[in-house]
């Protein structure tokens, strides 16, 4: 099995959950913030994956990769931070407002 096949369910889930928030308030603003977060997370992934791979902490079997790399890091590694940047805010948006307020007050932050 290739890493691209493993990543596919995460990408599909992210797309579906994000699209489910399309009619929620501030969708465009949320997407812009998610895009900024995605860029930052992918930049960090590029830096740290390259350092860890260069240090020999882990390797990837080439037969399971697309062959596209950013430095030493395979492109497939960048799908997880991309999904996280869009999926986490989308899930939060879909939570009932009462549940979000309760979670915020438990954490000591009033909304």
From TrEMBL:
Residues 8-94 form the Lycopene cyclase domain. It is a multi-pass membrane protein. Keywords: Carotenoid biosynthesis, Isomerase, Membrane, Transmembrane, Transmembrane helix. The keyword ATP-binding does not apply. The keyword Transmembrane applies. NCBIfam families: CarR_dom_SF (TIGR03462). One of its GO terms (molecular function) is lycopene beta cyclase activity. It holds the Pfam family Lycopene_cyc. This is Lycopene cyclase domain-containing protein. GO terms for cellular component: membrane. The chain crosses the membrane at residues 6-23, 35-58, 78-95. Pathway: Carotenoid biosynthesis. It is found in: Membrane. GO terms for biological process: carotenoid biosynthetic process.
């Amino acid at each position: 099995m290739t890493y691209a096949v493993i990543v596919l369910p995460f990408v599909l889930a992210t797309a579906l959950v994000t699209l489910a928030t399309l009619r929620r308030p501030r969708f465009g603003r949320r997407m812009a913030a998610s895009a900024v977060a995605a860029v930052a997370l992918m930049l960090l992934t590029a830096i740290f994956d390259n350092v860890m791979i260069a240090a020999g902490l882990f390797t990837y079997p080439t037969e399971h990769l697309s062959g596209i790399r950013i430095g030493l890091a395979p492109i497939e590694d960048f799908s997880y931070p991309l999904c996280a940047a869009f999926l986490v805010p989308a899930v939060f948006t879909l939570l009932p407002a009462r549940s979000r307020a309760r979670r915020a007050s438990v954490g000591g932050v009033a909304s």
